[in-house]
Amino acid sequence: MTGIATRRRQSVNDVGTETEAFPCGRGLRAMIVVRALFVAIGLIVVWQAVIFVFAPPAFMLPSPAAVFAALRDRPDLWRVDAVTTLTETVIGLIAGAALGALLALLMSFVPPTRRMLLPLMVVSQALPVFAIAPLLVLWFGFGLASKIVMATVAIFFPVASAFNDGLARTDDGLLDLARLYGANHAQQVALLRVPSALPSLITGVRLAAVYAPIGALIGEWVGASSGLGYAMLLANARAQTAVMFACLFLLAAMSVLLRAVVDLLTRNLTPWVPETA
Q1: Which of 82, 153, 164, 233 has minimal CB crowding within 10 Å?
Q2: Hey, CA dihedral for 167, 173, 179, 182, is it positive or negative?
Q3: Gyration radius (Cα) of the chain, Å
Q4: First vs last Cα of the chain: how many Å apart?
């Protein structure tokens, strides 16, 4: 097995040397940022054009200026509520990603557990999130705990599913070579399946980073004393549509920020997988 591990490290180093010769990753990320900025500016221009042409009532569709004014006049939205939702989301993302990865590893290290865990995972996602949110608030209270659990439940499945799929799709040639060297099942998983499945795990975590705020937001809608979801409920009851749009803007910015942070943290975990446009 030492020979297999050595060969794998050498192949990874060779691929890393080749990718360094073509440093397109930084340029690709800059291109993505520029595209995102153009898309955001384009949406604001279209939004303002709709306001100018159709002149809808402010309680139906506020102007971009009214939304930014709400952000300026309500600093508690981004000082308190946004921080609360971001805290719930980040902790839920970490817990959900860890739980999903552990479940996938358990199913890979102990194959009989797959027949028991996979149906339970599917059932956990088949239930409507709104249906279990009141129970979680009842069990864990109106504080951060219920929102963290909700975010964890909402995102662990994409991570577990993607990682499990990657673990199950390891190259048969590598596994046959490992058996030829006398590797047992645990060594095959640790030395071959896990490194081969890292791109799938990263994909699942990146997807979870986008979905993570949804779980926290639903938990705040059901019962909370702060957070963007709670602020949206109050604004809806008072017909403050500009405040609701301001909360949506903060949620969108939060999702983009989380995705960017996850990309930054996972950038060098799989140097043998090239980035393409």
Answers
A1: 233
A2: negative
A3: 23
A4: 37
- Quickly tell me which residue has 């955001």 as its tokens: 40
CA–CA gap between residue 131 and residue 148 (Å, rounded):
16
Q: Which residue matches tokens 């896990």?
A: 194
Q: What is the Cα–Cα distance from 111 to 199, expressed in whole angstroms? A: 21
The answer to whether 106 touches 186, Cβ cutoff 8 Å, is no
Closest CA to 277 of 30, 16, 48: 30
| pLDDT tens digit sequence for 12-56 | 444 444 444 334 556 656 676 677 788 888 888 999 999 999 988
Contact assessment for residue 212 and residue 194, using Cβ atoms and an 8 Å cutoff: no
How far apart CA 36 and CA 252 sit, in angstroms, is: 12
Structural element, H or E, at residue 156: helix 144-168
Point out the residues of the chain with pLDDT beneath 50. Answer: 2-23
Residue keyed to tokens 């604001």: 44
Task: Tell me the C-alpha distance between 150 and 145, whole Å.
Answer: 9
Separation CA 258–CA 180 (nearest Å): 43
Residue 169, phi then psi, degrees to nearest 5: -110, 30
> Cα angle vertex 222, ends 221, 228, to 5°?
25
Taking every pair of Cα atoms in the chain, the longest distance, rounded to a whole number of angstroms, is 74
Q: Which long-range contacts (CB under 8 A, 24 or more apart) does 229-235 make?
A: 229/85, 230/81, 231/77, 231/81
Question: Model-level pTM greater than 0.70?
Answer: yes
Of 212, 232, 222, the C-alpha closest to 137 is: 222
